[in-house]
């Protein structure tokens, strides 16, 4: 799709295609809240202070709220979906529809930029991350990224333009001028044992021009083995392989 077609897809079709509705539903909010807790736990072990936080692909704004509660930081989100953006605004989260809108508003730089399950949707992730580093991230700032793991997640979905292994995520960040501080393979919040996701914390530092890309070997074999392991764990230990995520902030249906 062209850039205009991608924008229209995320504004008009993405949520309905994946969730059956344009706005948040209880299951989606439960997963978002649990994912926000997971990302906070991962980042806060290394990141002691945050003053300005930008979350791209903010959905309902729950990740921004989690970090704001912990750090007392100024929180700003970008969400193209009208229903999700309006929901977040009603919760008191400051939201923009696009990076262009944020730039036009003259926002100062941020010391934390997060992209949770966004990078796989971008047609040129290296250029996108390099632009964030150059224009919107403070020189000593942090980048927090989470993506599906090629070796455990289905990955190949209509909305996913790129699929990542731990090796290719490291290289994407390095080529965009970031130094990876920590990278974890895990299943939170959906699985106790299946490493569905890759989470990375990085800082500006690598020289993109000097960064040498390295080919990854046996990708197809590692994906087959990873999916076979997932299938075996699902069959033998279904409750550990796939957790039921419940939003304790919302009343349960009777």
Strand content: 15-25%
Radius of gyration based on Cα positions? 18 Å
Q: Within the CATH hierarchy, at the fold level, what is the topology?
A: Rossmann fold
CATH class call: Alpha Beta
- The residue fraction in helices comes out at 40-55%
Rounded mean pLDDT score: 90
The neighbouring-strand order within the major sheet is: 3-2-1-4-5-7-6
- State the CATH superfamily name: Vaccinia Virus protein VP39
| Largest sheet report | 7 strands, mixed
Class based on secondary structure composition and strand pairing: alpha/beta
The geometry reads as globular
SSE order in H/E notation? HHHEHEHEHEHEHEEHH
Report how far apart the termini are. Answer: 43 Å
What is the level-2 CATH architecture name?
A: 3-Layer(aba) Sandwich
